[in-house]
Amino acid sequence: MINRRKFLTAAAAASGAALVGKLMPTARAIGASSEKIVPVSTGKTESFNPPSGWKGYKPVITPNGLTLPWKMVGGVKVFHLIAEPVTHEFASGLVAECWGYNGRVHGPTIEAVEGDRVRIYVTNRLYSPTTVHWHGVLLPSGMDGVGGLSQAAIQPGETFQYEFILKQHGTLMYHSHHDEMTQMQLGMMGLFVIHPKNASDNPPDRDYAIMLSEWKVEVGARRPDPNEMTDFNIFTMNARSFPGTQPLLAKVGDRVRIRLGNLSSMSHHAIHLHGYHFKVVETDGGEIPKEGQWPETTTIVPTGSTRTIEFTAYEPGDWAMHCHMLHHIMNQMGHQFGNVIGVNTKELNQKIRPLIPGYMVMGQHGMGDMGEMHMTVPPNSIPMVGGQGQYDYITMGGMFTILKVREELPEDGSDPGWYESPPGTLAQVAAEEDLKRDGIELSKDSSQANALLFNEENLCGVIPSASKIVTARVKTH
Ligand SMILES: [Cu+2]
Fold first, then answer.
1. Which stretches does DSSP call E strand in 114-252?
2. 238 C-alpha vs ligand 1 centroid, how far in Å?
3. CA distance 421 to 424
4. What is the dihedral of CA 344, 347, 348, 353, to 10 degrees?
5. What's the CA-to-centroid distance between 323 and ligand 1, angstroms?
6. Measuring CA to CA, which of 151, 287, 296, 439 is 20 to 30 A from 19?
7. pLDDT digits (tens, 9 = 90+) for 238-287
8. How far is the CA of 112 from the centre of ligand 1 (A)?
């Protein structure tokens, strides 16, 4: 039986290079690409200060992103989006040829106020037609941006003009609505935040905006593959993968709002925040009445929607915030290897190396090996997991970031560094006298880590006895 994916591959092969070349550039076609090389967008967080005298709202912070500048012309708020190829860095070591807006992937966050009349120019600097759809915004049908249905596509070199009055407030999005599969999987999307008219009444102390998305970037390739349907390998917050994600900062007592939008091709994301209970206060359909909100630690953000969460940051610390779909907190490579957890791979390596010099079977102790061993990764790719934390290697990548809550924060908004746990509040190796007091007896040989046995013997298929797993080390004074 031929599935849809195989069918598409077969169809593309059958119809030949001419069709492929016309429809979309593939990783292989990169060499022949006529795209202009632009500076690499590295996801630096930048703020935009509204023109002086403007008192409309407290601007959002887009970590690793930017708010689109605007100006007032005759009472209209004027924006200019430029659709163009962007060389984008997902995390240090992985750069890809994406499509975005104004030199950014994703596009800058558009911010306005309920009641504003906005005029948004869209210039197409791609070599493909495009349109922009204002996702969730209530507007006239002819401004909705669906190519062919609500308007003609914007041809390369053309500039279109969208104009409408914002009748609502909330966290909305914008994205290409022409050849959606290609253009959105190459990065053409952004957030559209509309503040309420009375936004200055009770703004949160910290207002963050994060777009969730997923990508397929073959190891070593520079072009995200828009044909991918299931096997995505880069999961991003504002188009950055951990350790490339910028931490969110808050001061103890701050009311924090985090706006989450999801325009992944195929996935919903279960965003989980450690250390707090939050409430979902808003979707892209509007505010949720107080009586309808309930406490949560995880919220599903379905693709094509937004969820806004709020909480008060009472507990200082370094708190993880990440997707709870476990393969969404991994980077590239993970799906390429056989499962060798618990297998002594020493002999296997020795047998394969004469054939493939330097070959190494990976993942003997689980996938944490990948980062910890500081293995060299293939050119233009990032390790499957994480980055160095304060205490150990953080064995997550992808859709993972850190909420840093502190009594005091640096004035300039810079990263305060790692959290120092007060005495008595940090998990550590158990002390011998504590074990004794609490009647926990460990057999003599159990102080030998089971992991050591794994290294010395071929344990393939053998399930170690529970007693051998209990402790890896015992702290002695
Ligand atoms: Cu996810």
1. 117-124, 133-135, 159-165, 170-175, 189-195, 206-215, 234-237, 248-251
2. 13
3. 8
4. 140
5. 5
6. 151
7. 999 999 999 999 999 999 999 999 999 999 999 999 999 999 999 999 99
8. 29
Query: d(Cα 313, Cα 405) in Å, to the nearest integer?
Result: 7
CB-based contact 321:274 (threshold 8 Å) = yes
The rounded distance, in Å, linking the Cα atoms of 438 and 60 is: 51
> Quick one: the chain helix, strand, coil %, rounded to 5?
15, 30, 55
How far is ligand 1, taken at its centre, from the CA of residue 407, in Å?
31
Ligand 1 centroid–CA 214 distance in Å is 8
Give the pairing of strands 234-237 and 393-394. Answer: unpaired
pLDDT tens, 146-174? 999 999 999 999 999 999 999 999 999 99
CA of 399 to the centre of ligand 1 (A): 7
259: number of Cβ within 10 Å: 25
CA 429 / ligand 1 centre spacing (Å):
32
pLDDT of 322-341, one tens digit each?
A: 999 999 998 886 445 556 66
- Residue written as tokens 């990783």? 27
Token pair for 399: 């859709």
Token duo for residue 88: 């984008």
